[in-house]
Specification:
Elements (H helix, E strand, L loop, with lengths): L1 E5 L5 H11 L4 E4 L10 H4 L9 E4 L2 E4 L1 H12 L12 H27 L8 H21 L11 H13 L8 H11 L2 H9 L18
The chain binds glutathione.
GO molecular function: transferase activity
Keywords: Transferase
InterPro entries: Glutathione-S-Trfase_C_sf (IPR036282), Glutathione_S-Trfase (IPR040079), Glutathione_S-Trfase_N (IPR004045), Thioredoxin-like_sf (IPR036249)
Length: about 220
């Protein structure tokens, strides 16, 4: 039995998308950022810093979305992984974990625009810088693709990266054909659509777009 502890729009979306791609039966436990449940001892026993996602996979408890994708690919869905010895093993690991390089920019922008509630707490300089750094990552990924996806055939690396494209468009929309083409390929996948339908009501991003303050 696979149980996913999930918050709508959070990095647990990666695991939700993976489970749908792999057709793995699962239960989604919808959690909240607002009711202190992520700081409850029962949840901290699963994820010691109270972070989302956490999963239980036939009794194996895990946190860290990239590690969960790797483990699920290795144990349940090899087609979404690139096993040791595969020619694309190193590239698969690089891109899978590059998802969290993008994730850092998303987290910084989310903190600046949403978590910090008063204007005086925010830094327009950080907001603009993070937009530029996020944009550079999205373009780098999109240009590195071999065909539709990052390694040619779809894999868990596209899921880890794809979350960055899903949330990244709340902060930056590069006018770049490769970015548009990658997003088109990712968002057309039935499993992506199924995961979106199961995501739950918005908990983090309530605006379509969060504009960085103009320079000067
Ligand atoms: N690198 C971790 C990041 C986990 C993380 O920070 N998740 C956020 C949601 S996207 C969270 O739980 N935030 C709540 C908090 O910081 O207390 C992963 O990919 O699983």
């Amino acid at each position: 039995m696979i149980r996913l502890y999930h918050v709508a729009q959070a990095r647990s979306f990666r695991v939700l998308w993976f489970l749908n791609e792999a057709g793995l039966p699962h239960e989604v436990r919808q959690m909240s950022f607002f009711d202190k449940s992520l700081r409850a001892p029962e949840f901290l026993a699963l994820s010691p810093a109270g972070r989302i996602p956490a999963v239980e996979i036939d009794g194996q408890v895990m946190f860290e979305s990239g590690a969960i994708l790797e483990y699920l690919a290795e144990t349940r869905a090899p087609v979404l992984g690139r096993a040791p010895g595969h020619a694309d093993r190193a590239a698969w690991l690089e891109w899978l974990h590059f998802g969290e390089t993008i994730g850092q920019h998303l987290a910084n922008l989310t903190q600046q625009h949403i978590v910090l509630r008063e204007d005086w707490m925010r830094s327009p300089t950080v907001m603009r810088l993070e937009v530029k750094r996020l944009e550079k990552c999205l373009i780098a990924v999109a240009e590195a693709r071999r065909g539709d996806y990052i390694l040619g055939d779809f894999s868990a690396a596209d899921i880890a990266l794809g979350y960055g494209f899903l949330i990244g468009q709340r902060f930056v929309r590069p006018d770049h054909p490769a970015v548009a083409a990658y997003w088109q390929a990712l968002s057309a996948r039935p499993a992506f659509q199924a995961a979106l339908a199961a995501d739950g009501p918005a908990q983090i991003y309530t605006q379509d777009f969060y504009e960085a303050p103009a320079d000067g």
